[in-house]
Write a structure and sequence with these properties.
9 strands; 23% helix; 176 residues; alpha/beta
C-alpha cells in the first residue's frame, strides 16, 4: 500500500486515500515517520512552514483548523487533495466546511479519523460515501453504520453515510 506511514512497525496510521500517493505534506505530529526516504509523504510536526512549502506538496493533510488557516494565508496550488485529520469524538466536516475547503484549494476533500496512539480508525475513500471503519477502537455509539458495499468496491462498514449528501459529494468529487 503506497503512501502509508508506519507506527510501531504496523501499517495502521495515515494512508493516502487514492493510489498512488502524490507528494503529501502531513501537518500534525501524530505519526512516527518510519518510511523510506523515497516515499512521497512527509510529516511536518510544526505544521505549515518554509520546509513544508519547499517540499512542494501536491496534497496536504492536517486538522480542519490548520487547513482553514492555510487557506487564509494563501497556500500554493495543489493538484490532488486535502485530507482533514481529526480525532474520535471531534466534529466531522459539514457540507459548508467541505465547500470552504473546495473554494480555497480546488481539490477533493477527504477525512480520516486518527486515534490518540496514531492508529487509523476510519478513512474516507474516493467514493466519498462515508468513512470506512478501519478499527474496532472507533467509538460508533451515536453513529449510523452502513454495511452495504461502498461504491468504491470495499465491503467494510461505513459511518456517516447520508444518501443525499453522499451522492452530491460523489458527483462533485468527480466533476471537480
Amino acid at each position: 500500500m503506497t503512501g502509508v506511514l508506519f507506527r510501531n512497525g504496523r501499517r495502521d496510521s495515515f494512508v493516502y486515500p487514492v493510489h498512488p500517493a502524490p507528494r503529501t505534506a502531513i501537518l500534525v505530529p501524530w505519526f512516527h515517520e518510519n518510511v523510506l526516504a523515497n516515499r512521497p509523504l512527509r510529516v511536518f510536526r510544526d505544521g505549515w512552514n518554509g520546509d513544508a512549502a519547499a517540499f512542494q506538496p501536491a496534497a496536504i493533510a492536517g486538522t480542519f483548523e490548520q487547513l482553514k488557516q492555510l487557506a487564509r494565508s494563501g497556500v500554493p496550488s495543489l493538484t490532488h487533495s486535502i485530507i482533514v485529520l481529526w480525532r474520535a469524538g471531534e466534529a466531522r466536516l459539514s457540507e459548508a466546511d467541505r465547500d470552504t475547503l473546495w473554494a480555497a484549494f480546488r481539490v477533493p476533500v477527504f477525512e480520516q479519523v486518527i486515534g490518540k496512539s496514531g492508529k487509523r480508525l476510519a478513512t474516507e475513500c474516493e467514493a466519498h460515501d462515508g468513512l470506512h471503519i478501519e478499527s474496532p477502537a472507533l467509538p460508533i455509539a451515536n453513529e449510523s453504520v452502513e454495511d452495504a458495499p461502498c461504491p468504491c468496491g470495499r465491503k467494510t462498514p461505513r459511518i456517516g453515510v447520508s444518501q443525499g449528501a453522499a451522492s452530491e459529494r460523489h458527483i462533485a468529487a468527480y466533476a471537480r
